[in-house]
Design a protein that fits this description.
- By secondary structure, the protein is of the alpha/beta class.
- The protein has two domains: 167 residues, 3-Layer(aba) Sandwich (Rossmann fold); 92 residues, Alpha-Beta Complex (Glutamyl-tRNA Synthetase, domain 3).
- The protein is 34% helix and 14% strand.
- It has a three-stranded parallel beta sheet. A three-stranded antiparallel beta sheet has the order 4-5-8. Strands 6-7 form a two-stranded antiparallel ribbon.
- Helix 1 crosses helix 8, helix 1 packs across helix 9 and helix 6 packs across helix 7.
- The longest helix has 18 residues.
- It is globular and about 65 Å long.
- The N terminus is likely disordered.
- Keywords: Aminoacyl-tRNA synthetase, ATP-binding, Ligase, Metal-binding, Nucleotide-binding, Protein biosynthesis, Zinc.
- This is Glutamyl-Q tRNA(Asp) synthetase.
- It is an enzyme of class 6 (ligase).
Length: 304
């Protein structure tokens, strides 16, 4: 995959889920996407990924936006919410047509079908064996909609941080869900449709989503959408080596702290985690130093 042509304006984004306040791990992802957009003199958009309604926490989106502003990260244009864009997902579903089929399998049934589950993660992707690909078994009703991947070639791309990445979707993932059993849109479809609709040219996010990128590239091809560039930064982990998240007890970094406390307790540690050795007395001075430092870091890695 090649970089966008120089004539294409850079448009990046930060897309948090409103499942709670931002923590240090999400701040690292937000900061990397913001710095990359600013270093490229581009736009930085914010999209609230609230399509999984069962996990949304009331007012979490408002708290997220307030925290970004208190940290000095100001977005371009209007904030968007996925729950306001479901007509776009319906249109994409119709476009996929014969590539999708109903599935009546539960997660337990897939696991029991001798499928591969990574022992290190209870949330690892189950390789779907194609049980319902030829039609629902007698007595089964449709639970989800899956995307047909059988026979798909290996999907490869160049990540700006990790270099060459490839995945055999059929062998490593199988036919994956695009509308879930609970009726909600799956992340893979929603993010691809949203990024295209917003004209996103560059996606900067955590390396925990590196494994999802080949599926998104495959969907982009089926929907005849352009490929953005990708950069996946390292993720913050806790003392047990688990990704820092709300599920693993990550604490909010912004609990009404002073600007100085935000700078010293959140912004500077996040920047140092990304490899930026910065010192600043105020938040505005921090960003003045961080943007060129990010460009220097990426140029040294051959990733700018």
């Amino acid at each position: 995959m090649t970089a966008p042509a120089p004539s294409v304006p850079y448009i990046g984004r930060f897309a948090p889920s409103p499942t709670g306040p931002l923590h240090l791990g999400s701040l690292v992802a937000a900061m990397a996407s913001y710095l990359d957009a600013k270093a490229h003199h581009g736009q930085w958009l914010v999209r609230i990924e609230d399509v999984d309604r069962d996990r949304n926490v009331p007012d979490a989106d408002r708290h997220i936006l307030a925290s970004l502003q208190r940290c000095g990260m100001h977005w371009d244009g209007e904030v968007t919410w996925q729950t306001q864009r479901e007509d776009l997902y319906e249109a994409a579903l119709r476009q996929l047509g014969q590539h999708i089929y109903p599935c009546g399998c539960s997660r337990r049934e897939i696991l029991d079908s001798q499928t591969r589950l990574a022992a290190t993660s209870p949330n690892a992707t189950l390789v779907y064996p194609g049980t319902c690909r030829a039609g629902l078994a007698p007595g089964k009703s449709a639970r989800a909609l899956r995307l047909h991947t059988h026979g798909t070639r290996i999907v490869a791309f160049t990540d700006r941080w990790h270099g060459h990445v490839s995945q055999d979707i059929t062998a490593e993932v199988g036919d994956f869900v695009i509308r879930r059993a609970d009726g909600f849109w799956a992340y893979q479809l929603a993010v691809v449709v949203d990024d295209s609709a917003q004209g996103i040219t560059d996606i900067v996010r955590g390396a925990d989503l590196l494994d999802s990128t080949p599926r998104q590239l495959y969907l982009q091809d089926l929907l005849q959408l352009p490929h953005p560039r990708y950069l996946h930064v390292p993720v913050v982990v806790n003392a047990d080596g688990e990704k820092l998240s709300k599920q693993t007890g990550a604490q909010a970094f912004d609990n009404g702290a002073s600007s100085q406390a935000l700078l010293e307790g959140a912004l500077l540690p996040a920047a140092r985690f990304l490899g930026l050795d910065l010192h600043a007395a105020t938040i505005p001075v921090f960003w003045q130093a961080a943007i060129p430092a990010w460009e220097r870091l990426l140029r040294a890695r051959g990733a700018f």
